[in-house]
């Protein structure tokens, strides 16, 4: 039949703000015609010897009431939703009260339809009781109109809910509800059962228990009432399946994308019931994960990816552990004079470019840029993550930094590399701490940096660092002087880049 085509049309329609109301009015008229058809079929079984005139009078009364009730119900509905129409036409966001009214749109329209049909059931039932020889026919007529009203109100709710999803989405976007504002999934399914099974079965019972005394329905009625049941049932089932199935498919895809790491996923909240709360929950989950990833990224940028991963895995506590590491200290030579020459803004840009070179070289060898100190940087190899050749990695990184800085030609530096035991861990207070390394290797690297500024290769390493490195690294280095570093009493054997 044509019902599938109607559902597809409704499915594709996403009415613009200014045509939502006309579309809804049209759908309500269609639903009323469906209900009128159901009532007509239920009344076809009324046959008495004097039923022709009575049928005519009842039919005319029903048609006249329908012609009067449809425009009255339409005006009534427009008045109840006039505030919704106002903000839709103006293009502005609704107020909280206006959003709540808009979310009640399907229920309001269905309620109006139900009232109109209830009044019609009483009126047409009285007319039928008056014109038929057997007054009990009026009871059957009234019950038939009630059943038609149930069908009409139910189909109206489903159609309006589908056509008004655009309005629902805008209202929910402006003011998300904390509790469901429409039929739950369970009630939608019960409504579908009523339209597909409840009403047709009650109608057949009424035909069998005919107060007119015929006792059995006519062939035409017996065939076409189930046909109407199939048509209305198909329409209702498709609408409910669409209202539940489509959002769940979208949610499944969204959750799958979030699981793949796309934290910027958002789904449109276009349901005022439990599914809408689920859509809001998925959006909140994605936003929370995005914020967590942003904080993780910022944390990693401040303390280093390895330190951040370790803190997130094991928690944060004060204290440290003894580790044998290679410390690399790099400092800009003549930075005070340079700052006076280029100005503070240009100096900041120059230092950022210099530090980018340091970070790239150190990260390439698996090291950690532990901290920036003005125009200097302390880098660590072997903590918090162990390295198979920490000393060799530090020496290679030192040579790479000097080569890159020399190629850029913007600053002059000194680089010192030392090897030894340090305490690595969280230092500070419970409310403010940082990961750092403290020990002789760090002090030695800083002292060697001062020597490196006066050496042509601009990098000096301790003998302990060369001894701990892979032997293949030695070919890049030559013996330097034995020097007594500041604060020391014994000389330190040094190596310089060849």
Describe this structure in words.
The structure is a single chain. The protein is an alpha+beta fold and 498 residues long. Helix content is 64%, strand content 14%. Strands 1, 2, 3, 4, 5, 6, 7 and 8 form an eight-stranded mixed sheet that branches. A hairpin with a 2-residue loop joins strand 2 (368-373) and strand 3 (376-381). The longest helix has 41 residues, at 219-259.
What is the element layout, followed by pairings?
Blueprint: H1 3-12, H2 20-43, H3 51-80, H4 82-90, H5 96-103, H6 105-131, H7 136-163, H8 165-174, H9 185-208, H10 219-259, H11 274-303, H12 305-314, E1 319-333, H13 335-342, H14 344-364, E2 368-373, E3 376-381, H15 390-408, E4 412-429, E5 432-439, H16 440-452, E6 459-462, H17 463-468, E7 477-483, E8 492-497
Parallel strand pairs: 4-6
Antiparallel strand pairs: 1-3, 1-4, 2-3, 4-5, 6-8, 7-8
Helix pairs in contact: 1-10, 2-3, 2-7, 2-10, 3-6, 5-8, 6-7, 7-9, 7-10, 9-10, 10-11, 11-12, 13-14, 14-15
Provide keyphrases for this structure.
498 residues, rod-shaped, alpha+beta, disordered N terminus, eight-stranded mixed beta sheet
Summarize the structure.
By secondary structure, the protein is of the alpha+beta class. The protein has helices at 3-12, 20-43, 51-80, 82-90, 96-103, 105-131, 136-163, 165-174, 185-208, 219-259, 274-303, 305-314, 335-342, 344-364, 390-408, 440-452, 463-468; strands at 319-333, 368-373, 376-381, 412-429, 432-439, 459-462, 477-483, 492-497. Residues 1-14 have low confidence and may be disordered.
């Amino acid at each position: 039949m044509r019902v599938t085509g109607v559902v597809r049309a409704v499915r594709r329609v996403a009415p613009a703000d200014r045509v939502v109301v006309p579309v809804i009015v049209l759908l309500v008229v269609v639903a009323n015609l469906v209900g009128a058809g159901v009532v007509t079929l239920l009344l076809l079984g009324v046959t008495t010897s004097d039923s022709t005139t009575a049928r005519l009078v009842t039919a005319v009364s029903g048609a006249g009431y329908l012609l009067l009730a449809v425009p009255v119900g339409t005006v009534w509905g427009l008045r109840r939703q006039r505030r919704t129409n106002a903000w839709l036409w103006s293009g502005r966001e609704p107020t909280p009260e206006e959003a709540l009214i808009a979310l009640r749109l399907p229920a309001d329209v269905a309620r109006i339809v139900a009232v109109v049909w209830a009044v019609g059931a009483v009126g047409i039932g009285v007319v039928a009781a008056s014109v038929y020889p057997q007054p009990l026919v009026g009871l059957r007529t009234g019950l038939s109109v009630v059943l038609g009203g149930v069908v009409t109100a139910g189909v109206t709710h489903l159609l309006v809910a589908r056509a008004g999803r655009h309005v629902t989405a805008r209202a929910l976007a402006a003011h998300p509800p904390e509790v469901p504002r429409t039929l739950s999934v369970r009630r939608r399914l019960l409504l579908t059962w009523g339209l597909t099974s409840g009403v047709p079965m009650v109608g057949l019972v009424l035909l069998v228990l005919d107060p007119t005394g015929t006792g059995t329905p006519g062939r035409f009625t017996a065939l076409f009432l189930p046909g109407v049941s199939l048509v209305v049932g198909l329409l209702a089932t498709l609408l409910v399946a669409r209202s539940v199935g489509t959002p769940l498919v979208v949610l499944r895809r969204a959750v799958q994308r979030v699981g793949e790491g796309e934290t910027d996923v958002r789904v449109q909240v276009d349901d005022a019931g439990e599914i809408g709360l689920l859509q809001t929950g998925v959006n909140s989950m994605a936003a929370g994960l995005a914020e967590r990833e942003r904080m993780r990224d910022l944390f990693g940028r401040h303390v280093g990816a390895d330190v951040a991963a370790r803190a997130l895995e094991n928690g944060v506590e004060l204290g440290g552990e003894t580790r044998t590491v290679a410390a690399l200290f790099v400092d800009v030579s003549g930075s005070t004079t340079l700052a006076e020459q280029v100005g503070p803004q240009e100096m900041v840009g120059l230092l950022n470019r210099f530090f980018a070179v340091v970070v790239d070289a150190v990260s390439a060898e698996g090291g950690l840029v532990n901290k920036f100190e003005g125009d200097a940087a302390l880098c660590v190899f072997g903590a918090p993550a162990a390295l198979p050749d920490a000393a060799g990695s530090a020496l290679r990184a030192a040579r790479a930094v000097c080569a890159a800085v020399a190629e850029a030609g913007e600053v002059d530096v000194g680089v010192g590399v030392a090897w030894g035991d340090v305490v690595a861990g969280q230092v500070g207070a419970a409310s403010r701490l940082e990961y750092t390394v403290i020990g002789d290797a760090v002090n030695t690297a800083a002292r060697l940096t001062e020597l490196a500024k006066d050496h042509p290769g601009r990098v000096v390493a301790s003998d302990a660092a060369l001894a701990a490195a892979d032997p293949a690294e030695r070919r890049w280095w030559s013996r330097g002087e034995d020097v007594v570093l500041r604060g020391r009493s014994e000389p330190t054997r040094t190596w310089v880049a060849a």
